[in-house]
Amino acid sequence: MTFGTDVHLIPVRLDTLRPTQMTVGYREVKAKRKHWKALDKKARKAAIESHWFPAVLGPGGQHFITDHHHLGLALIEEGESDVNAMLIKDLSWLDETIFWRMMEHNQWVHPFGADGSRRDYAKLPKLLTGLEDDPYRSLAGELRGAGGYAKDATPFSEFLWADFLRQRVTLDAIRKNFDKALQTALSHAHEQDARYLPGWSGVIAAKP
Predict the structure, then answer these.
(1) What is the pTM of this model?
(2) What is the pLDDT of residues 136-154, one digit of tens each?
(3) Is the Cβ–Cβ distance between 15 and 76 less than 8 Å?
(4) 143, 185 in Cβ contact below 8 A?
(5) Do 169 and 75 share a structural domain?
(6) Which of 86-111 are b and which e, b meaning 16 or more Cβ less than 10 Å from the residue's Cβ?
(7) Do 21 and 111 sit in the same domain of this protein?
């Protein structure tokens, strides 16, 4: 999601931000916490001041963030409370039905649970701390980092990969040996069956 450099940042509290997805990959949250711990006080302040959470103003004047859920949860768990939001759109004047219809039309919401099934909008967590862990989202994130697919601007692309992997790698395998599960995921990532997914990098040619 790209915007111009002239953006208006709004100070907000992390505990007031409304998620637009139901899950995160907690391995990614842990990695962001580890990175945050490595920063000194000055670097943390600079990071907070220069970073912003894209948000839609919705019913009741609440800010619904459309990205950076992992970072937001990591910052909360590290004791941070205040960040900046950047307003994408003011839809606060719409009733809830039309609001969610517009959110979906713009691909600003992903109402799918940790089992990959679609849920009602009412089931979306009210706080970032209510986000569930989806091990397949963690696997999809690590898969991209390992070169399984390219970074892509498609909204919620990692979740599309998570759903692909959900049919090919067992949950037990992920929990027992994540690194081995990642190798299995890598082998599936280059199959023709994955060619519909964002960032697919093609079939790897067999060595002669």
Answers:
(1) 0.90
(2) 999 999 999 999 999 988 8
(3) yes
(4) yes
(5) no
(6) bebbebeeeeeeebbebbeeeebbbb
(7) yes
